[in-house]
Amino acid sequence: MSVVSPMDQHNKRLLANVHPVDWASPTPAERYNLVVLGAGTAGLVTAIGAAGLGAKVALVERHLMGGDCLNVGCVPSKALIRASRAAAAVRRAGDFGVRVSGVSVDFSAVMERLRRLRADIGVNDSAKRFKDAGVDVFLGAARFSGPDTVSVDGKTLRFTKAVIATGARAVELPIPGLKEAGYLTNETVFNLTALPRRLAVIGAGPIGCEMAQAFRRLGSEVHLLEAMGQILIREDRDAAAIVERAFTREGVMFSCNHDVARVEMRGSEKVLFTKCECHPDGVKVDEILIGVGRAPNVEELNLEGVGVEYSKTWVKVDDFLRTSNPHIYAAGDICLGPKFTHTADFSARIVIQNALFMGRKRLSALTIPWCTYTDPEIAHVGLYEKEAQAHGLRVRTFMMEMKEVDRAVLDGEDEGFAKILVEEGTDRIVGATVVAAHAGDLISEVSVAMNNGVGLAGIGATIHPYPTQAEVLRRLGDAFNRTRLTPFVRSLLGGWLSWARG
Q1: Average pLDDT for the chain
Q2: pTM
Q3: How far, rounded to the nearest angstrom, does the alpha carbon of residue 477 sit from its chain's CA centroid?
């Protein structure tokens, strides 16, 4: 079981909720409408949603209820990031005429706050809460034992439908010497109580970038090593370049196209050697954080025994989230490409409808935004320009830099841009990217518009309070609406106004 540490009052309180040592699993019902394996976001939403609709539900968790999001993902990482932003804001106070004599980060206090807030939020995912909601909660290792049965610590749960929601985990990279040197992942980094003086982060995806910037702001010397040609390879180059510049300005030592060849221990130092000549003497650090690589938690489930196909990356599902066994569904990180808490949540809603009520809800129908919580943030929804071209879709791009937005200038947060793609000849939004201090909040307006058939003209026609950074979206709508004023339309309007003057 993934164990949190140190075992202070906050982590004791967390465990008392998400894996109480004195938990007594109930006597199984004769048959369950739904047996859910895994109590991360997807499993919790599936279980409590189905129970709320009257289904008889069993929920099985072998580790910690709340899954990655609560224990080793979104919740602790954003607590750490918030502390790092506070430190960065104080360092920038002079830009606003506020004089501060210096910045001192108490890392132990930062982590104590993280553990305290995680324990507070953990009540929402507690075994007791789900029991009170009518869910039979079993804490133990689950295994499919027959075509319609799951065994848990000697107890048999019979089901009509089952849902695999066991999530994914960090994997060990095949780098010689890495295992021997020791390393951190998202599952262990939040157990730290002392700030690493020097930290190497391998992988410049969302986790790697967020943690690299956070630890740098908290005082670590940070080396960010990425095998690809840019950070955040999924994002377009313009967006990633802005974050790269922010990293360079803040002192993150970033290296692209740098595969790590091997790791050596030299006394208490960990030395990383890359497959290039940029670091001939190696990168010397005290800790290594792996920010890349996830594997599905499928071991010991006996998926082969019930005809569920899976690979090294996910459990295979169709667009209705059915596995190759029509009585077994999957939801969340175990089966999805985009591994986000909000995607896990909405995949669970699809499963409830399709598994219990013969629904035909499709995963492909979801409009999925996402955000990387660097500073500035990068948020995206829909298609990128290259994807639109690959789909044979002709688009027009409307873009505005945040330095043209009054509130962003006043806030000192004018780095970034908003970009919206519309289908040629219409105002239908097919994709958007926002790079801004609060991009994750701004992208939701575009997601709502896309999900409800509101075009860019509609955003432009909607009053936004001034001054706000969200005004950038309204002004992009204005830019689209101005394209409607063709020479022909202008001539008609001019003729009318000439006539109106008498």
Answers
A1: 95
A2: 0.95
A3: 28
